[in-house]
Write a structure and sequence with these properties.
The complex is a heterodimer of chains A (414) and B (376). Chain A has 414 residues and is an alpha/beta fold. Helices cover 36% and strands 17% of the residues of chain A. In chain A, α8 packs parallel to α11. Chain B is an alpha/beta fold. Chain B folds into two domains: 34-199, 3-Layer(aba) Sandwich (Glutaredoxin), CATH 3.40.30; 217-371, 3-Layer(aba) Sandwich (Glutaredoxin). In chain B, 31% of the residues lie in helices and 19% in strands. Chain B contains twelve helices and 16 strands. In chain B, α7 (226-234) runs parallel beside α10. The longest helix of chain B is centred in the first third of the chain and has 17 residues, at 64-80. Chain B starts with 6 loop residues before the first strand and ends in a 5-residue tail after the last helix. Classes of the chains: A alpha/beta (414), B alpha/beta (376). Chains A and B meet through β9 of A and α8, α9, α10, β16 and α11 of B.
Chain lengths: 414, 376
């Protein structure tokens, strides 16, 4: 019975595909809720069936140029990989995509990556494993950061190309032969953890095609983060409404409290920002700090803001925090003895400037900066410190490597 | 526990006893009201001053009897609109008093937003007002169950109260008879009828609702290998089984989880089973357990026993899509009656559950109501 239904679904997909986003597809969605016997495959936008021609595309890339399908006509094979910035699974596959690109470029394969997501549909709470979201300018930042030198294109504006492919998730790979017929689609390999990989499905398909042999396995499922379809409600506006409704409070802190915060006896990575009013740099970067809090707060992370003005300025401190919807832990110096409390915190800095620190559980300082911060640098140091066991195995190492590479690059420069 | 046991209220008798709370008496003047409606405006008694007759219907979203009457209230509205008769629906249920288990027959609760959603789904064209904040209007009318209609003449004197009709094919259309009599300038033959329906959810119940919600059952997670997942797919529970595949690092999963919890709480008195399956790596168990505890997830929880995600997914079902979240509803025989890849729309899920749970003999037609969208 289930086999019968599977065939029906496949047939429906075949009919619906060449028409793109026609009403046929919409109608096909209807039986999804309640009619079927077995699980139906990717109903929202059916996956391109094996044998289909390469869908045409013309999309902006991180190199500032527009890339078209026709531009790769000279390559023997063409791999299209859907990947994204925000998805931790996609991040773990970046180096494997790079290897595919490097290994097969010489053998005549083109590789093009496409990000199907629109940043407008990605909520802040979906950015728990990333420094940037899924916009084209931020794809450029990721490409620079990670040395992505294959074409990385943005389809988030309309998702027209992603719909044609039926990109289920990031990552999801499609391999076309010389006639630009689809010969393999699905996962890159059989385990998100590279050290556990046994079957390299995409490589097997490519090797077979290069050798003129039949592709051993043509269809696999692709694990990862579901494509953020524009057609689905994203909850971005509701998230912002919720954030604006969160309570904003401030507690006074004395010398002992400050020492305790500084020692960080919690199991969370702590971002601490010491700031004062009438400090343009402080005000200018406060929103970024709160955004960072909203991104990581469901993980082993917390943000503490500490105002150094002293109790007399309590009303204006609270007014500022409320304007920023600062639902983080907010503190303010309990006495006017600013120098004494700075000493209790254990740092010396110009109190007219902000001091920003990332403190690991146990008190180790992972990041410290007086003055203007690079918020992405702050985020990366946090991402490289949060434990995988309460997150995603491999993510910590990915960010540790990134931070280390950046440091090495910085040294070469200077 | 059957929470919606139809209450039979001998209101005429109750009205005679001085000690019991009584409802508005025939001949009484219409109580004033000013309540927010689903159209975003405030509605007051005086807004209907021009109407030759005014029917105030107390009804709600979650009561299955009220649901059955939605189409008939609409018909009443449509049939008498051009004759100068206004039909105004008032929801007396306090959203704060609703327990999730009170929503076993509904996709939404009783807030004004929920009322808007229901009216949009079912294309309800009549004014639908919320008295849920303090139930002041319901108290003035003495309403203790829904549905309950009050028909006033042009002078706003109460001339009929009770049932909209007796619910039988070809039976007595009491409210219509009363309105017809008023329009013809005749005496109303039957002035009151006995109301049967669902009790109004009143505010004092709110404390009890909170207490029930704070139950301290244990949260556990079992490691699931291929065999366990294969068994899960077959659904040996004998009941409808909701399964959600999720991961801690998947934000859409985390975002929809409270909705799934609430959905289970709503329908578990009617026999719905729920199993949440984490596709996390076994090494990520501390995060999984912390998440489940945060959400007080006292249902059955499974965690993939090995890092072989694809292998375990195939063991569950070779056709299972790989990304998360993925949610399916299995019939007792293992048929998939609902599935959603990516973050789900909770009301779509709830309607699928309502359209599939076995019909309740107390509320004939309830499943059919949920098997249709909009037009009855």
């Amino acid at each position: 019975m289930s086999r019968f239904f599977g065939t029906l679904a496949a047939a429906a997909a075949l009919v619906a595909l060449p028409i793109g986003t026609s009403p046929l597809i919409a109608r096909q969605q209807a039986p999804a809720q309640g009619g079927g016997r077995g699980i139906q495959s990717n109903l929202e936008h059916p996956v391109l069936p094996i044998g289909s021609a390469l869908p045409d595309f013309s999309l902006p890339g991180v190199d500032g140029k527009t890339h078209k399908a026709s531009e790769y006509a000279g390559t023997k094979l063409l791999a299209i990989v859907f990947e994204s910035n925000h998805c931790p699974v996609s991040q773990l596959y970046e180096s494997r995509i790079e290897q595919l690109y490097e290994d097969y470029r010489k053998k005549g394969m083109g590789l093009v990556a496409i990000n199907p997501n629109n940043p407008k549909t990605v909520r802040l709470d979906e950015l728990g494993y990333t420094d940037v979201t899924d916009s084209l300018p931020e794809m450029k930042l990721r490409a620079q950061l990670r040395g992505i030198d294959w074409p990385y294109l943005y389809d988030g504006d309309t998702q027209a190309v992603s719909v044609k492919f039926g990109a289920v998730a990031t990552p999801h790979i499609f391999i076309f032969d010389q006639d630009r017929k689809l010969r393999y689609q699905g996962r890159i390999d059989d385990n998100q953890r590279e050290e556990l990989v046994k079957t390299r499905d995409a490589r097997n398909a490519i090797d077979a095609l290069l050798a003129g042999k039949p592709v051993p396995v043509t269809d696999t499922t692709a694990f990862g983060c579901t494509t953020k379809w524009l057609s689905k409600a994203s909850g971005v506006e509701q998230e912002w409404t919720r954030i604006q409704a969160e309570p904003v409070t401030v507690d006074a802190v004395g010398a002992e409290d400050l020492k305790k915060i500084r020692a960080n006896a919690t199991d969370k990575v702590m971002l601490v920002n010491l700031w004062s009013t009438n400090c343009a740099t402080c005000a200018g970067q406060f929103f970024d700090l709160e955004t960072t809090y909203r991104m990581y707060r469901k993980r082993a992370f917390d943000l503490i803001t500490i105002n150094t003005n002293g109790p007399a300025d309590a009303p204006q401190v609270l007014a500022f925090l409320k304007k920023e919807y600062a639902s983080s832990q907010n503190k303010q110096f309990a006495t006017a003895d600013r120098a004494g409390l700075q000493a209790a915190w254990g740092e010396k800095w110009n109190p007219a400037q902000p001091l920003t620190m990332v403190i690991a559980p146990g008190g180790e300082v992972l990041y410290k900066k007086e003055g203007k911060i690079d918020i992405l640098e702050v985020r990366r140091s946090i991402l490289a410190a949060m434990p995988d066991t309460k997150g995603y195995i491999g993510s910590k190492a990915y960010w540790e490597r990134t931070v280390a590479e950046l440091k090495a690059r910085g040294k070469t420069k200077s | 526990m059957l929470r919606w046991l139809p209450v039979v209220l001998a209101l005429a008798v109750a009205g005679c006893r001085g000690s019991e709370p009584s409802h508005l008496a025939i001949g009484a003047h219409a109580p004033e009201f000013s309540l927010p409606g689903i159209d975003g405006k405030s509605h007051a008694l005086r807004d209907y001053a021009d109407s030759r007759a005014l029917a105030i219907v107390f009804t709600g979203n979650s009561c299955p009897v009220s649901q059955q009457y939605e189409a008939r209230i609409r018909k009443l509205h449509e049939d008498y609109r051009d004759k100068g008769v206004s039909v105004v629906a008032i929801n007396p249920n306090a959203p704060a008093a609703m327990q999730l288990a009170d929503l076993g027959y509904s996709d939404v609760g009783e807030t004004l937003d929920d009322m808007k959603a229901r009216a949009a789904d079912r294309q309800l064209p009549y004014p639908y007002l919320s008295d849920g904040q303090d139930q002041a209007v319901a108290k003035k009318f003495g309403v203790v169950s829904v549905p309950h209609v009050f028909v006033f003449d042009q002078a706003r004197t109460l001339r009929y109260e009770g049932l909209i009709d007796d619910g039988k094919q070809g039976g007595s259309a009491d409210a219509r008879n009363a309105i017809d009599a008023l329009l013809a300038g005749k005496a109303v033959a039957t002035e009151r009828t006995r109301v049967e329906g669902c009790p109004v959810k009143a505010l004092p119940a709110a404390a009890a609702a909170q207490a029930a919600a704070d139950g301290n059952a244990a949260v556990t997670v079992e490691m699931a290998g291929a065999d366990e997942l294969k068994k899960l797919r077959q659904n040996g529970t004998g009941k409808f089984l909701l399964i959600n595949f999720w991961a801690t690092w998947c934000a859409p999963c985390a975002s929809e989880f409270p909705d799934l919890e609430a959905t289970w709480q709503m329908y578990r008195p009617r026999g719905l089973e729920f199993v949440a399956v984490s596709v996390n790596d076994p090494e990520e168990k501390p995060g999984v357990l912390e998440f489940l505890k945060t959400h007080k997830a006292t249902h059955r929880n499974l965690l993939f026993a090995t890092a072989d995600v694809y292998g375990l997914q195939a063991a569950f079902d070779p056709k299972m899509p790989a990304p998360v979240p993925f949610t399916i509803l299995l019939a007792p025989n293992g048929d998939v009656v609902y599935q959603e890849l990516g973050e789900l729309t909770v009301r779509k899920l709830r309607r699928a559950i309502l359209a599939n749970l076995p019909d309740d003999p107390k509320f004939p037609g309830h499943r059919a109501y949920w098997s249709t969208e909009g037009e009855p």
